[in-house]
Specification:
Blueprint (H helix, E strand, L loop, with lengths): L1 E2 L5 E5 L2 E4 L7 E4 L5 H7 L6 H10 L4 H14 L2 E2 L13 H18 L3 H8 L2 E5 L3 H13 L3 E5 L22 H4 L1
Parallel strand pairs: 6-7
Antiparallel strand pairs: 1-5, 2-3, 3-4
Helix pairs in contact: 2-3
């Protein structure tokens, strides 16, 4: 378990922390001991409940207090329930993960784990016929959004008028579906 992607632990005072940057949707927690802040920071990476309890004891606290903190965090909805190693994120190619990480972090604030939706999007197939000014931009948008399989259909050659954000000078004369 770990904090949802995109959430950070911020110290507000010696005995108060805020989880999340945005005060409108963040959660504040009172700490019994300032050392508990370090335990919460550990949850920014994946740990089992047993590891959390063990670290709490190392910090001078009790296993019971570790369990109490975990219950509070679960109730607030700021923890992911899965191990990061089981995440849909790992099923995506590394370049896709890097490109989609900001969206996954944003979705995690609302959905719990943004990666399953993005992995589902990667498995989708979309066909686009007609790669003029509108179709070519739609194809680029879908590719950047992480749609996994695009079937492009437009054998017309790229013309000098098509040059711009999508097609470059080297693309003129090539079939549009190959140039894109």
């Amino acid at each position: 378990m770990k904090l949802k992607s995109g959430l950070r632990v911020l110290r507000r005072s010696a005995k108060e922390v805020q989880i999340g940057d945005d005060p409108r949707i963040s959660h504040r927690f009172e700490l019994a001991d300032p050392r508990e802040y370090e335990l919460l920071r550990l949850l920014e990476t994946d740990h089992s409940p047993a590891q959390v309890r063990h670290n709490m004891v190392k910090l001078g606290g009790s296993r019971e207090r570790a369990d109490e903190l975990l219950r509070m965090l679960r109730k607030a909805g700021v923890l992911t329930g899965k191990s990061r190693n089981c995440s849909a994120e790992l099923r995506l190619p590394i370049p896709s993960r890097e490109l989609l990480a900001p969206e996954a972090e944003s979705r995690a604030l609302v959905e719990g784990d943004g990666w399953p939706k993005l992995a589902q999007r990667m498995s989708q197939r979309v066909s686009i016929y007609g790669l003029g000014r509108t179709g070519s931009h739609i194809a680029m948008g879908l590719a950047v959004a992480g749609v996994g399989h695009l079937h492009l259909g437009d054998s017309r050659p790229v013309t000098p008028r098509d040059r711009g954000q999508v097609f470059g000078p080297a693309d003129v004369g090539r079939p549009r579906d190959e140039a894109l």
